[in-house]
Amino acid sequence: MKKKNNLILGFDIGGTKTSLILGNSEGNIIKKTTFPTLAQNGFKKSYKNIINNAHAFINNIKDNKLNYNLISVSIGGPLKIEEGIILNPPNLPSWNKIPLKKLFEEEFKKPCFIEHDGNAGALAEYYFGAGKGYKNIIFLTMGTGIGAGIIIDGKIYRGSTDSAGEVGHIRIAEDGPLVYNKKGSYESYASGSGIAKLANYYYPKKYKKNVTAKEVIEDFFNGSKEAKFIINLSAKYLGRGLAILADILNPEIIIIGSLAVRMGKSLLNPALKEMKKEALDLNFKNCKVVPSKLGERIGDIASLCAAINRGLR
């Protein structure tokens, strides 16, 4: 990477909240603010909210005699990455065919780079986290949903329509809760929303429809038999999916964010046991599976990585 002194204005845009980050190409976070995205209000109002907050943030950093050279965005897909066009992500209603790169460059008068949030997470781990030193990496988000960022021979793999890595849509079981528009999807078993829906699916009297994954996980650590069954079931199918990814892509390392960071061996040990049963022995033995090294910081660092990967190389 070049131009190591360049500062980057990073946007981590999600359906619930947006973070603005001032950082550099070393992955260092200098300043940050977070605010509600207001996605439920539609594109015009949520975009105006982001712009207003961004200008206030920029004025603040200028008051501190700081400036930035590039804009970097991490956002959920689907999207056209090079053109920077957002194609109606499920968590951003009415953000359909939005030319975000063009809008940001016109608004802020700086070059802007946009990346799918799963890819951005993979790049963050590749440059600064558990993926350093590896060339073939899979990063699994495993938060509310589950998606993958894929790096092959040191380069991000986006696929022919920029939609590679939508592993949450894979059917992993014949039945189960409806998540990602499919019963038995990987996301319905191995994600935060999946864990919550599994709990309601198997134990509707104990876990109502509004239960959260956080509540189920807390019950698990408090010794609940029902929660233990749900978490072990989620881990089992997480492991089956890991075996599929290992056999198809033969990565050196699979890095898992969010839930794997919070649950550690309680989730990963049973997942690895199932992965070992399902994967080819050679592929299993040559694939490390670890939680994200960046932990809770990964979203902040990932927001910088579109620019680090394409604007500073």
Describe this structure in words.
Helices cover 41% and strands 21% of the residues. By secondary structure, the protein is α/β, with parallel strands linked by helices. A five-stranded mixed beta sheet has the order 3-2-1-4-8, sandwiched between helices. A five-stranded mixed beta sheet has the order 11-10-9-14-15, sandwiched between helices. A three-stranded antiparallel beta sheet has the order 5-6-7. The protein starts with 6 loop residues before the first strand and ends with a helix.
Write the layout of secondary structure elements.
Layout (H helix, E strand, L loop, with lengths): L6 E7 L3 E8 L4 E8 L6 H21 L6 E6 L3 E2 L4 E3 L8 E4 H9 L3 E5 H12 L8 E4 L7 E5 L2 E3 L20 E2 L2 E2 L2 H4 L2 H11 L10 H9 L3 H25 L3 E4 L2 H5 L1 H14 L2 H5 L2 E4 L6 H13 L3
Parallel strand pairs: 1-4, 4-8, 9-14, 14-15
Antiparallel strand pairs: 1-2, 2-3, 5-6, 6-7, 9-10, 10-11, 12-13
Helix pairs in contact: 3-11, 5-6, 5-7, 6-7, 7-9
Question: Keywords, please?
Answer:
41% helix; 313 residues; 21% strand; single chain; alpha/beta; five-stranded mixed sheet
Short description:
By secondary structure, this protein is an alpha/beta fold. Helix content is about 40%, strand content about 20%.
Principal-axis shape equals: globular
Q: What's the SSE pattern?
A: EEEHEEEEHEHEEEEEHHHHEHHHEH
Largest sheet: 5 strands, mixed
Strand arrangement within the widest β-sheet reads 3-2-1-4-8
Helix content: 40-55%
Radius of gyration: 19 Å
Tally of alpha and pi helices: 11
How many strands?
15
Overall pLDDT: 95
User: Gap between N and C termini, in Å?
Assistant: 5 Å
- Helix/strand-derived category reads alpha/beta
Residue stretches low in confidence (pLDDT < 50, at least 5 long) are none
What portion of the residues fall into strands of 2 or more residues? 15-25%
